[in-house]
Task: inverse folding
């Protein structure tokens, strides 16, 4: 069947008038035959079994029964009428009930004629009843082509109240298959189909809508899920390849003096295997003539800083400048300080530019950037201002993916002739399958190994009632010279209340930990940047032992002497936030602790989050749990939801299929980049169609 047929507007299908077409478009986004075919069932009802009324149990979900209606009556009740039919088989009697559509039902139902009914049963007034049953005359039922595994299609309130029931959709689907003679063009190549032992397209479509049995249904679903994920991956991988062939980058051909000197003489520790591997991946990119576009994932404390630093040295060695952009002032300062430390024996010039840089030093920075005297610029959003012009920016590193949008990233691109190489670093591990779908067009490096000798942070969950014990523990730690974070939630919707909690908490801490024995810092979002900085620095320098804060300290802050993280109202934090906060401790040589404080009232999800935190410190494992709890849309925010809008596959459950699909897509484009081998024509055509009719599958962007 050619693609023209599939693009036929839905109103041309027999049984779909203008009204129904309107509803289908509005409610389900079905514009064409193709859209209808791609409306996949949410689930299937097993209609291979028939029940007798005497066998019914109160726990039955949905049942199918053969019997006759012996009597129909209208029952007046407080809110409107209900229509009740007495339904019997040879074993007993039950009731069928309707709350609407009485007239139609009364006129059409036949008394004393065998029917097959299907639906959920209730136990009511000492009798089973079935509200709004699906009904079919036994005679028609026996002749029907409908399969025993009955699909249940996605629907809406509006559709069912307008009479477009599941049954109607099913009938339309039959009509469509009848008109198409079930001859759908193959959309995958022969070698692919045979190597994965897939059903043909036609068989798969038929069996997903009219499954002959469980086995064929499973194979049909596999084939269609594979296909859906395969074409997304093909699109993403292709975008990556096109990017590489079209977007030129400055090739950093040599590994020069800065890099070599640092590597030979000044490396503060032995690099981990993962750090070496990732550096090699970055070096390969930088050495090629294409612009690097790489995401570097690594859990908190995995050692991204030094990898980023050595990448910058490669830029410098090739006569280019580099910059690093961080989401907050505090983080920029920390990055700046650690770079100064790392580079102290190298002859390079590093500057810091943030919102609080004075006008005069700002002017100086602008000048020295343009004349090339500054080698590396660190800073916040201030880097994106128009006045900031580099002489020759070769590498831009962005810390913390989430906080910068794509538009901001590309602003950096326009600073000079060629776009600089871009390395995005994120400490929020993203499950591999999700990363493949969302960042599938980027190259991804993962530091999946922590530096040696790191002690796992001991994590416990304590109820508020045990607060005094917790305070005693904190005093013990402080007496050993350690420092402590106490973090309060700050959620936008309840900001005023949260500030009150924070201030109340602060006051009780100050009471419990009195001066001069104890010094307490406080940092929160309503403070002026300079005050925040001042307080933060007192803590960093060890002048205060306790830091009371909202989540402003979540990202990146590095105080190795801090060994305890107390998280108040921990049930209100998301998993990735909890994990980030915990990452603030465990940075020194001492055993560190994370104490999750909650009330006794916990939701099931909150309990799962706390248990996960106590059980594991592996950021990727935590991210997997987070994905299951929150779903992909919530996890990544709405910006990426298009990619996740799948028709049949499920990014959480079908991760294995996704991996296979991606590897096939990569292999295919490697062997036949233009898809010009005749055996790949079906793929080329399908791909072109998908791009052309972008409304078909809305993830093709
Ligand atoms: P993150 O990935 O969170 O940015 P950092 O780069 O800040 O991690 O590294 C965390 C700590 O681990 C730092 O104190 C750093 O000096 C140290 N570190 C990094 N790599 C190694 C290594 N290979 N061996 C020992 N310590 C390391
Ligand atoms: Mg870091």
Result:
């Amino acid at each position: 069947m050619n693609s023209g047929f599939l693009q036929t507007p839905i109103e041309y299908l027999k049984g779909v008038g203008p009204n129904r077409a309107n509803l289908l478009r509005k409610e389900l986004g079905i514009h064409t035959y193709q859209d209808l075919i791609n409306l996949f069932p949410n689930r299937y009802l097993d209609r291979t079994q028939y029940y007798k009324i005497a066998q019914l149990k109160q726990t039955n979900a949905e049942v199918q029964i053969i019997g006759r209606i012996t009597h129909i009556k209208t029952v007046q009740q407080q809110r409107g009428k209900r229509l009740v039919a007495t339904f019997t088989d040879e074993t007993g009697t039950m009731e069928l009930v309707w709350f609407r559509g009485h007239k139609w039902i009364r006129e059409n139902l036949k008394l004393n004629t065998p029917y097959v009914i299907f639906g959920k049963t209730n136990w009511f007034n000492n009798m089973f009843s079935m509200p709004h049953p699906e009904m079919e005359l036994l005679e028609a039922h026996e002749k029907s082509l409908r399969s025993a595994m009955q699909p249940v299609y996605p629907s809406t309130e509006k559709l069912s109240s307008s009479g477009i029931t599941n049954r109607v959709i099913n009938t339309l689907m039959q009509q469509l298959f009848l008109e198409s003679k079930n001859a759908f063009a193959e959309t995958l190549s022969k070698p692919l189909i045979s190597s994965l032992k897939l059903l043909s397209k036609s068989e798969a479509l038929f069996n997903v809508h009219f499954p002959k049995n469980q086995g064929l249904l499973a194979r049909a679903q596999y084939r269609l899920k594979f296909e859906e994920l395969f074409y997304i991956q093909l699109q993403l991988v292709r975008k990556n390849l096109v990017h590489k062939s079209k977007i030129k980058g400055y090739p950093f051909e040599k590994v020069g003096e800065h890099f070599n000197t640092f590597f030979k003489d000044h490396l503060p520790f032995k690099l981990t295997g993962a750090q070496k591997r990732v550096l090699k991946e970055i070096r390969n990119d930088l050495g090629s003539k294409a612009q690097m576009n790489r995401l570097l994932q690594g859990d908190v404390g995995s050692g991204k800083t030094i990898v980023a630093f050595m990448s910058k040295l490669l830029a410098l060695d090739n006569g280019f400048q580099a910059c690093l952009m961080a989401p907050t002032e505090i983080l920029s300062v920390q990055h700046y300080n650690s770079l100064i430390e790392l580079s102290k024996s190298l002859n390079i010039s590093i500057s810091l530019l943030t919102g609080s840089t004075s006008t005069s030093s700002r002017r100086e920075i602008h000048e020295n950037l343009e004349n090339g005297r500054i080698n590396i610029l660190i800073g916040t959003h201030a880097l994106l201002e128009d006045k900031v012009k580099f002489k020759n920016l070769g590498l831009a590193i962005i810390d913390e993916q989430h906080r910068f949008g794509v538009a901001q990233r590309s602003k950096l691109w326009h600073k000079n002739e060629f776009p600089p190489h871009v390395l995005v670093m994120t400490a929020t591990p993203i499950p591999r399958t999700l990363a493949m779908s969302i960042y599938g067009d980027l190259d991804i490096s993962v530091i999946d190994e922590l530096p040696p000798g790191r002690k796992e942070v001991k994590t416990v969950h304590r109820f508020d009632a045990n607060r005094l014990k917790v305070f005693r523990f904190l005093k013990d730690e402080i007496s050993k010279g350690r420092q402590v974070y106490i973090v309060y939630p700050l959620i936008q919707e309840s900001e005023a209340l949260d500030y009150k909690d924070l201030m109340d908490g602060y006051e009780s801490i100050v009471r419990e930990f009195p001066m001069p024995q104890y010094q307490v810092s406080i940092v929160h979002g309503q403070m002026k940047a300079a005050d925040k900085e001042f307080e933060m620095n007192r803590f960093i320098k060890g002048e205060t032992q306790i830091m009371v804060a909202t989540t402003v300290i979540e990202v990146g802050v590095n105080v190795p002497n801090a060994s305890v993280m107390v998280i108040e109202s921990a049930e209100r934090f998301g998993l990735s936030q909890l994990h980030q906060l915990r990452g603030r401790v465990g940075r020194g040589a001492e055993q560190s602790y994370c104490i999750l404080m909650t009330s006794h009232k916990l939701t099931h999800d909150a309990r799962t989050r706390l248990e996960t935190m106590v059980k594991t410190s592996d950021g990727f494992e935590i991210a997997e749990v987070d994905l299951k709890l929150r779903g992909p849309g919530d996890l990544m925010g709405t910006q990426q939801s298009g990619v996740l809008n799948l028709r049949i596959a499920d990014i959480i459950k079908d991760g294995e299929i996704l991996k296979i699909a991606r590897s096939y897509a990569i292999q295919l484009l490697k062997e036949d980049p233009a898809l010009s081998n005749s055996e790949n024509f079906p793929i080329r055509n399908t791909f072109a169609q998908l791009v052309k009719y972008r409304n078909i599958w809305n993830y093709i962007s």
